Amino acid sequence: MGLSTHVLDTMHGSPAGGMRVALFTTQGEQATLVKRFELNADGRNPDGPLYDNASLKVGTYRLVFDVAGYFKARGVSLPEPNFLNQVSLDFGVADASAHYHVPLLVSPWSYSTYRGS
Q1: 10 Å Cβ neighbour count for 73?
Q2: Does the predicted model carry a pTM greater than 0.85?
Q3: Total domains, the chain
Q4: Which residues of 91-108 are buried (b: 16+ CB within 10 A; e: fewer)?
Q5: What's the CA gap between 70 and 86, in Å, rounded?
Q6: From CA 67, how far away is CA 43, in angstroms rounded?
């Protein structure tokens, strides 16, 4: 299956549909944009996996989630500056034939991630 992501809004108890996300490949401090997308109503990329198994390469990647923009769009009153603005997750792919699923559980004040299945 390659690489996928899924975002759950723990404040509202729902998928984070409408959140903007960017995917980058990274090499040291340099990041190269691969794509930007908006999560669907299920909190997933509307086009399916970010990379399929044939396209995923061993290397390092970054997902950037626009947390503050999402919660503001939901009408949540956030302090200025926001506690969380964008959440960046840097991760490595060691086995390009495996499935890498990167879920994000998020509220305006906290987040958690793990390698899912």
Answers
A1: 12
A2: yes
A3: 1
A4: eebeebeeebebbbebbb
A5: 10
A6: 13
pLDDT in tens, 51-95: 998 999 999 999 999 999 999 999 999 999 999 999 999 999 999
CATH of the domain at 42: 2.60.40.180
Q: 28 lies in which domain range?
A: 3-113
- Residue 1's pLDDT band (cuts 50, 70, 90): confident
DSSP state of 16: -
Burial class for 82, CB neighbours closer than 10 Å (0-12, 13-18, 19+): middle
Nearest to 16 by CA among 38, 34, 47: 38
